From TrEMBL:
Highest taxon in the source lineage: Eukaryota
Entry annotated with the keyword Methyltransferase: yes
Region annotation (Disordered) ranges: 1-25
UniProt GO cellular component terms: nucleus
Stated family: Belongs to the methyltransferase superfamily. METTL16/RlmF family.
Protein's name in the database: U6 small nuclear RNA (adenine-(43)-N(6))-methyltransferase
Residue numbers binding S-adenosyl-L-methionine: R91, G123, D146, N248
Amino acid sequence: MPSKKNKRKRPERPTIHPKNKYSDNPPDFSVLASLYPSLKPFVFHSRDGRPRIDWTDFNSTRELTRVLLLHDHGLNWWIPDGQLCPTVPNRSNYIHWIEDLLSSDIIPKNNNNGDIVRGFDIGTGANCIYPLLGASLLGWTFVGSDVTDVAVEWAEKNVKCNQHISELIEIRKVTDCQGDISIEDSNCGESVNCENKMDGNATVVEEAELLPSSSFDPPLDMNKKYSGPPLLLGVVRDGEKFDFCMCNPPFFETMEEAGLNPKTSCGGTPEEMVCPGGEKAFITRIIEDSVVLKESFWWFTSMVGRKVNLKFLTSKLREVGVTIVKTTEFVQGQTCRWGLAWSFVPPVRKIISPLVQKNSLSFTLEVWICPSQFNSRVNLSLKLFIHYSNYT
Ligand SMILES: C[S@@+](CC[C@H](N)C(=O)[O-])C[C@H]1O[C@@H](n2cnc3c(N)ncnc32)[C@H](O)[C@@H]1O
């Protein structure tokens, strides 16, 4: 007789966004191999008779991505050997999560660009996957930025060979000396050299009082501060307005760390995978840039690779006085990634729940409201957590 313990199964976490093309129809490698002979050499059958792909072989994963983009999205696509190869279903999850953000009514809709949705993909890579998917699935327009010549060259090729959406995507090369971009660093007192610097206004002070203490979060090691080329500040041009930015950052500090998952081979050069301070430093810089560029973006978002960093980053967001933070979990086979979104736009929705559930499902919202956004001088240590499912 099964024990009571076994009966109490934890609810299954959704691993794929319901709007994802593959949520009801996962790719059938046999069918695809019969339609695209170039895929055939990479498909084999396991003992249970199911068609499989060798995920540890870069050529297999690249060919599968090429075929899926062509077959399911009508996109021509290629990357040179060794460049980071995206998996289409999980990259689509991030796009659909942003779609949810834009359509949710927690903050007012952005009408800056009329009906046109405009996104900024920080580090678009040679694969240019997010602009290609966002443009082909949803008709969004994009600026995709990158620093390396190979990424910019191949992203441009991938855009040009898709005439039906090429008008929607601009690839922007980031250079080290772009703009005059040093921003105030309150921790180490570097020089301030930008017009719109972070200023400690009243909202920041109240926010610190109102939101949970971050005293247990480890600080960012000063030696590991992001010191690379600009991310947003200095790359976004005067007067540009975006509905969102997105980013799949270099997660790791070393290539050894990057190579820790022997179950997959998605390629990835050091420029794509690694930066001093890893994702924590990279995303911290995006947060700092967002303070200066709060008028230029409706939503800021980034992928986060490690949960411990998510905690650090959300506390950083509280410090800088955002009005909203939203997180989600992207489950990719055995790997978990997180989505982090924030905004400085005052929220309109007020669904209040006393607690943030610990083991929340994927694609859920956490919203923090700072009462000072409503010009209220409430002298209470008030914490409002809003939590609801994006599926509703
Ligand atoms: C993990 S890869 C992501 C590539 C692609 N977006 C994807 O999801 O597969 C990170 C990318 O960020 C780029 N990158 C690093 N620093 C950057 C910067 N300062 N500005 C723009 N891109 C940068 C790298 O060259 C690399 O292409």
